[in-house]
Amino acid sequence: MRGNSGLIPSADMASWGHRTARFCARLLEYSFWMGLLLSTHGGWVLAEEPVPEKANKHQDAAIAESLFLQGRQAAEELRWEEACAKFEASLRLVRTLGSLANLAWCHENRGKSASAWAVYRDLLSAAHDKGDTKRENFALQRLQDLEPRLARIQIIVNHSPEGLQVRFGDQVLAEGAWNCAIPVDPGSLHLRAEAPGYISQDWTVEVPDGVRIIETEVPMLRRVVTPPVKARETEATKEVSTETGDDTLAYIFAATAVAGLGVGAYSGIMTLVKKAEGDELCTGRYCSEEGLEAHESSKRYANVATISIGAALLLGGGSVWLFASGSQDPARSASVSTNNGYYFQVGTVF
Q1: pTM tops 0.85
Q2: Are residues 266 and 333 part of one domain?
Q3: Are residues 206 and 247 in the same domain?
């Protein structure tokens, strides 16, 4: 308890000190166990979370080594094409100076001097970076030996429409390499020039072994010309459809006129027949019922004959007019277009 002076008695001070020490000890113990629990739980979490694995470098290295040895075996047996394929496959997996050196040597023995030259340059740079003086000197020596024997092609571009691309083999020649002599392997070289809106041009250049520089010029590309066929086709379609419609109507009129003439002729004959029957059944002013019916039938047939023949004449005249107006149309002509977009017409007026 506090005295009147407000100070804590010594006994109470000692008790308070013991309680404080026990509290701190328990706090430290609690912190220790919580830290241990969290660290253990965190370890479990890390163990359970999947860790993305990198590519199995050892397996790639084993496959690359196997391919390299197969390439060496093929090279010893002078099967250069197969050997080069094995060395290239090995390099795609693991890039080593030995594979580069053997691939370059393989290309050189195949007669692919430009390919060998390119790989030797790659080997020179890689060996220099790794401090391999032996392979660096080897690459430099082979480059100096190959340089005078390289075949080069100079692709001359005098006309370059927008978007022009020059391809040789399966590669696109960079614009900076136009009109420059670039190393190529001897043999047939397929080239192609293409640009949007132009007709592509293909050609082949034979590059002989031992030649220094061979030149080839990109041919001038011709524009793709689309003649205005659509408008002419639309007009022709309209003309043909109009002519076809007129002709069809004329045929319908003519057929109907013929039918009308047939009906008129039949009705005219029946008019005469019925009149004759009526005359036989009627004597003087007396006429039997059958005679009256025969005269009425004669009148009806006469009316049908008059209407039919009149309609037939009208329709016949209409068909003749339609046929005549269609045959006098000067637009019936044939047109032939040229590749340059021009066309001429050959017409006949009937």
Answers
A1: no
A2: yes
A3: no
First to last CA, the chain: 140
Distance between CA atoms of residues 39 and 45, nearest Å:
10
- pLDDT tens digits, one per residue of 255-292: 776 776 777 677 778 778 767 776 777 776 667 777 66
Answer yes or no: are the C-beta atoms of 155 and 178 closer than 8 Å: yes
- CA distances to 2, 283, 299, 304, 306 from 275, rounded to whole Å, are 160, 13, 8, 15, 16
Q: What range defines the domain where residue 124 resides? A: 57-148
Angle CA(198)–CA(201)–CA(205) in degrees, nearest 5?
Answer: 155
At residue 183, what is the residue type?
P
Ramachandran angles phi, psi of 235, nearest 5°: -65, -45
Residue 166 CB neighbours (<10 A)? 20
CB 93 within 8 A of CB 119: no
Q: Are residues 340 and 241 in the same domain?
A: yes
Q: Is the model's pLDDT at 326 over the cut of 80?
A: no
> For residues 123 and 135, is the Cβ–Cβ distance under 8 A?
yes
